[in-house]
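Provenance and format

Records in this collection were gathered into a single text stream. Each protein contributes a sequence line and a C-alpha cell line. The two records reproduced below are adjacent in the stream.
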Amino acid sequence: MTTRLSNGQATLAKVDDAAAVNVMDSLKTIAPDVGKYILEFAFSDIYNRPGLDLKQREMITITTLLTQGDTAGQLKVHINGALNVGLSRQAIVETFIHCIPYVGFPKVLNAITVAKEVFSEHD
C-alpha cells in the first residue's frame, strides 16, 4: 500500500525531480512537519485528485503564485515544474500576460523576470 508521503514524493518527482529530493532536506532541521505536509497534503491529496492533469495544475499554481506576489522562490520551482510536465514557454508567458488586467503589471513583470531566469537555466 502506498503511503501519502511516498505518493506525494512520486507526484512531486513528476513535476520537479530535484524538488522532490530537496523539499524534505531543506526543512528537516527547522520544520520537518512542513515538508511532510507539502508532500502528503499538496502533492498526494490535492495534486492527485481527478479532473485536472499536471499541466493544468501547474498553470493554476504559477498563476496563484504570481497573484500573491513576493513568491519568486516558489514561482521558480513551479515554472520549472510547468516546463517539466509539458507546458511550453509560450503558454507560461501567455498565462502571465492574461493576468495583467486582474493583478497588474508589477506582479506580472516580476513573474516574467523569474520565468526568464528559469528559461535561461533550461537552455
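Adjacent record:
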Amino acid sequence: MTDKDGVCFTDEAKEPKSAVAAADGRPCVWRTVAQRDATVTVTDGSALDYRETLTLVPVRRSDADARPVGTMSVTSFEKLADGRIDARRPVLAMFNGGPIVASTALLLSGIGPCRIAFSDDLDVGARGPFALEDSAHTVLTDCDILVMDPIGCGYGTYAADVDVKERYTALEDARQFADGLVTWLTRTGRIGSPVFILGESYGTVRAPLLARALLEHPQGAVAISGTILMGATTNIQEVHDRLRSIVAPAASLSLMAATAWYHGKSGIEADDVAQVIDAAREYAQGPYLRALWQGSRCPQDEREKVAARLEEFTGIGAGEWLRSRLNISKNEFRARLLRDEGRVLGVYDARYSAKAEFGQDPDPSDLRISPAIHACAMDFYASMGVPRDLPRTESPGDVWPQWDWSVGDPSDSVAAGTRKSPFDEFDYTGALEYCLTQIDGCRLMVVNGCYDTITTVGAADALIASMDVTADQVEQRIYPAGHMTYTDRASARQLDDDLVSFIRATLR
C-alpha cells in the first residue's frame, strides 16, 4: 500500500516471473503504480472520502493464449467508508474514442472527483495556466469509477514482441477491454458489483461490442446493468455525410438549426435552443426527408419552398441550398455560416469560432480544449505520486487507415477479422440491441451536446429509433454543449445529475 501522499509502489514481487516484457522493458504484470486517499466536498456539503489508484492491468493475447499482449492503464476512484471500500457498490467503467486515445478527457470531466476548470468565456483562447477543480457533483456519490485507456495509451504498453498493427481491429479492441475489465473486477473483489459502461465517440462503437464480449468472456460472463453512449458513432455508417445520402442531411438539420440560432443567424423564433431542436426534428423527419427522397423528381416549387424553410433554420441562403440539391454537409456548414465574417465554426463544438485561415481548416473548439487536457493530465497524475518522467502516451497517432471495422456477426458478409469493403455492414447497434434484450433490466442512456458537428442529435434519434427495445429501457439527454459536453460547466453538472438518476433508476 502507499501512504496518504501517494508514494509509488508495485505488486510485481507478488507476481510469478514472466518472460513477457513491454516495449519499455517492464514486465507485463499487475502493477499498482500509484495510490492515494483523498476527499471531495459534494453538493450537499458533506465530505466524500475516496481512494484513487493507477493500475497497470495485464491483458491476455487471446482466449486461448494467457500470455500478456500488454498492460492496460486503469485509473480507479473508489469511495471509502471508515477507510474501507464497499465491494457491493456499482462500478462505472469509462473510455474515450479515437479509436485509440487515452481517456484523459473523461478522467478530468467532473464525472469523477475533479474536472478541468474550463473558462465559461468561449472567446478565450487556449492559453495557460490550466487548472483542475473539485467536482462537487461527481457520480462517485453513487458508484465507483474506472477510467480505462486502450493498450498503448496512458501508461500501458504492448509487449515488445507484439505486432501492434495486427491488433487494430474493432473486435480485438473490445476483447482487450473486456479482458482488462474482468481482470480488474476479479483482482479487486468487485466481480459481483453491478457494472455500467460509458463510451464516448468511438467509445460508443466499443461499448456495444464490449458489452457482448463481457457476456461471452471465457473466465465467466459479466452482464452489464446499463450503457451510456456519449456522442454516439454507433450508427455512423447510416448518418455519415455522403454526397448523395438521404438520411445524413436530415439527421444533421437539428445541429445546423441549433448552431445558427446560437450565432444569431436563425429565422426561427424560440425561447431556447430546445424549441429550435424540436422544430428542426419535426421538419427533418417530414417535408425535408420527403424532398430528399424525391430528389430531382421533387417539383420545383416544392424544392424552393423547402429551401426557403432550410434558410430559416440554418441561416444559409435558399439559393445555396438549391444549388447544393438541398444537401449541405456539416463540414460545409461550418465554413459557410460565418463566411461573411471570415470565420469558421468548431468541429467538436460549433459555439466556438475562429478566423478562417487560407488553405487551412482550423478547429477552434479542439484548439481551445486539447492543450488544457494534456497539461492537467500530467498535473493530476503527478499529484497522485506518478513520476513525471514515467512515459505516458496520449495517442499513438492516426490509426484510422489501419483499423479493421469488422464485427463478424450478425450481419457481416465476410468472416470476422477480414477487412471490409464499403458495401459491408458494421452492425454495432445489433450488439447493443442484443444486450438490451438479453440482459434483464439492462438500460441505455444516449447523451449529446446539441452543438456537436461530429455526432449529432439527429443521428442519436435515428440510433434509438432503429432498435426494437421498450421505451422504458432508453433515456436520451441533450445538453447545451458540444462533443465533450462536460467542457461546459452547466452541462457538466446536469450530466452528472442525469447519470446518477440513470444509475439509481436502473438499480431500483
